[in-house]
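Step 1: inspect the first sequence and its tokens.
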Amino acid sequence: MAVRTIITEGDPRLRQKSLRMRTVDDEVRRLAQDLWDTVRAARGLGLAAPQIGVLRRIIVVSIPPDYVEEGDPGVELTLINPEIVRASGRQVGLEGCLSIPGWYGEVPRFMHVTVKALDLDGREVRIKGSGLLARVLQHEIDHLDGILFIDRIEDRSTLRYIPDEEEEESVTAAAS
């Protein structure tokens, strides 16, 4: 469909709460395809509709196979009206965001989450995620509530700028 422009910090839409989707129709599917086209072009791990200026509760998650460890399966999810219904454990890890390019920081998140959502057929799904998948799900759902990863950093000294040329070598962050 279309690669959309990713809006960046300072745009007020990133701080607004997104509206629930009432139905899953062709318009929602087109929006989902635009999210997929955009996240792939940006080489991110996830993207939420507010990041392209659309205040609707829809996210995509794209973790390539072998991203963390060899043998890890890839994950591709489109979730409409996602909400965390169960969470446990704690992890702290490096995160970045396509809406705050180049900046990374250590963010505490739940280690395990269960997310309830609708799929593109309008059916309810439950996704259980641990580790990186749990982190990306929480990061993207935060976007739907106007929360950025920098809001969750406990130790501001971990926030740092990493130029693009160094990023691939030094960062295995949840950049979404």
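Step 2: inspect the second sequence and its tokens, then contrast the two.
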Amino acid sequence: MPGAVTLIRSERLSDVAEYAYAATASPRSRLIFLAGACPLNEEGSTAAVGDYAGQAAKAMDNLRTALAAAGATLRDVVKTTVLVASTERRDLVTSWQVVRDAFGEHDAPSTLMGVTVLGYRDQLVEIEAVAAVLDSD
């Protein structure tokens, strides 16, 4: 009998990260816990070096890809956490505006915070999310 947790991976995302991009838990509804979406290109290089808005956009693209691999969309997101490597509020606001625009009318709760450093070389933005879906029987 399979376990309650299913790890989700996508061939369209870089395999540089040493973790699954999402996980689900059953039974009737599935919660989807997504690892932080990073602004990484498929081969693992950092996109839009030095550009907060560009990195936020690439991270959102990767978040959409991870959600799709789990059978979800941005409309299924319950909460996000947006991490920005900066002490300047304007950099946080620049990054947040890209994220906010991507979600449109689906304005899920979110935490936006500045951090000192993120995991990949030249990385400025990371977006973590939790989503929930109802599966049809």
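Step 3: confirm your contrast with the notes below.
The first strand starts at residue 5 and ends at 8. The two ends are 18 Å apart (CA to CA).
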